[in-house]
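Following the same procedure, the fold was encoded as tokens, giving this record:
***
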Amino acid sequence: MISESQEHTASHGTLRRIASGLIAIVQTRLELIGIELAEEKDRLLVSLFIGLAGMLLSLMALITLTALVAVAFWDTYRWQALAILTLAYAIAALACGLKAFSRLRDAPPIFPATLAELEKDRAALKRTL
């Protein structure tokens, strides 16, 4: 027959193993979140710098185009040519703004691998309990 102290010790051992397992799972998931955060940060920084370089070069091209059109139409339709360019720039800026807003609104969820692993952990815990 099992004595009360042996049963108490066995239950403590089981609780310690469960707690140890849960701590290991949490530690692994936190490491995964850290890795995903670092990858996302690197991706965003590269995208940001490439985007800024593209914007700077585009701005230089637009300034040069505006000067070229102004010089070409200086004697005849200078203000009309500049008005058309201004309208074209405004429409392009609006389209870019709407596209950026749409991409932010429809962005995928953050940390997909971590969320999937946490869901697996939750399902495993449901089966064991």
Q: What stands out?
A: The chain is about 90% helix and 0% strand. The longest helix spans residues 4-72.
